[in-house]
Design goal:
Layout: H1 2-30, E1 34-35, E2 48-49, H2 52-66, H3 73-95, H4 99-115, E3 122-124, E4 133-135, H5 140-157, H6 164-182, H7 186-206, H8 215-233, E5 235-237, E6 240-241, H9 244-249, H10 251-266, H11 279-285, H12 290-313, H13 316-336
Membrane topology: Multi-pass membrane protein
GO biological process, one term: cell wall macromolecule biosynthetic process
Subcellular location: Cell membrane
């Protein structure tokens, strides 16, 4: 019965997103919310409407309101936080917010989650001795904010090729949905199913050749929602965060962003300065088409998602060991393919 309800709500989310996107596209043209290519980092040549993230947000919000029963405390917190992210994203898409102001919106949204009880209270213990978990104590607030802000920005930074960020977010959503179902977390399963539907309805317009972009509104929203929902769904008990699982599930954007920060630091560049060293840029430089690049990155994301599901089913110690192996392999590949060398 519960799964039937989730299926219906997912279908509603898909339909709302699919029908809203053309209307949002017209609005973006009308108010001149356009991504106009101004530098070499831009792949498209013609102005493309932004604000596609609004279709995802409205679809997600409306479907959540339509679900059976009143919103619970954590759901209200996630929706309020998402709204703060959307407001900041809209301002950024229209007026180009300075990084510090963007960060302020993200921290505010993460703080709302904490106020409503969506936080990392404790993590699974990687060592086989003592308790099965480690209480974070006074570190609850900074670690929760770091997780939410980190994933929000990671999704935003890979949004450089048609359909890439949306597709990766869809794969991450499905991964967390499966983990939530296996873990008996109905609320998280509902969240991710509805989010998956909202993304799926938008993707036909965003896949190459894209007729509309998500903009910062959508990319930050998806990162925030995935970070928030993972706190509810990738856990082994009501309050213990299985940290290896979401790090694997969101591996592609997390590692790509981490390598970008290391690369910029090693080359004496500001960490926030954009470059053309991201994985999608390097694959494009190899002569691959946008579609091939996106499909390759979808595959990588799906593989990491599959590994995260395995990590959820094994002991905490083994899941950390699995995470370590994956990180070492990815770091070696990044070094071998010169990911840490600067590219203009």
């Amino acid at each position: 019965m519960i799964m039937d309800s989730i299926k219906v709500l997912t279908l509603i989310s898909v339909c709302i997103s699919f029908l809203l996107t053309p209307l949002i596209k017209k609005l973006a043209f009308k108010i001149k919310a356009l991504d106009i290519p101004k530098d070499a980092r831009k792949i498209h040549k013609e102005p493309i409407p932004l604000l596609g993230g609004m279709a995802i947000y409205l679809s997600f919000l409306i479907t959540m309101i339509l679900k059976e029963g009143p919103l619970v405390k954590s759901e209200v917190g996630i929706l309020l936080g998402a709204t703060i992210i959307v407001v900041g994203g809209l301002i950024d898409d229209l007026k180009d917010l300075r990084p510090l102001f963007k960060l302020a919106f993200q921290v505010a949204a993460a703080s709302v989650l904490i106020i409503f009880g969506v936080e990392i209270f404790r993590i699974t213990n990687p060592f086989p001795i003592g308790s099965d978990y480690l209480n974070l104590g006074f570190l609850v607030v900074p670690i929760t904010i770091l997780w939410v802000v980190g994933v929000t920005n990671a999704l935003n930074l890979i949004d450089g090729v048609d359909g890439l960020a949306a597709g990766v977010a869809f794969i991450c959503s499905v991964t967390i949905f499966i983990i939530a179902v296996l873990n008996g977390r109905r609320e998280a399963a509902l969240f991710t199913a509805i989010l998956s539907g909202a993304i799926f309805g938008f993707l036909p317009y965003n896949f190459n050749p894209a007729s509309i972009f998500m903009g910062d509104t959508g990319a930050q929203l998806l990162g925030f929602l995935l970070a928030a929902i993972s706190l509810e769904g990738t856990i082994k008990s009501a309050t213990t965060f299985a940290i290896a699982v979401p790090i694997l599930a969101f591996g592609l954007p997390i590692y790509d962003t981490l390598f970008a920060m290391i690369r910029r630091k090693m080359n004496g560049m500001p960490i926030m300065q954009a470059d053309k060293g991201h994985l999608h840029h390097r694959l494009l430089d190899m002569g691959l088409s946008q579609r091939k690049v996106v499909l390759i990155m979808y595959l990588i994301s799906a593989i990491l998602g599959g590994i995260s599901i395995v990590a959820m089913q094994i002991s905490s110690t083994r899941s950390y060991f699995l995470l370590t192996i994956v990180v070492v392999i990815i770091a070696f590949a990044a070094w071998k393919w010169e990911f840490f060398k600067h590219k203009e």
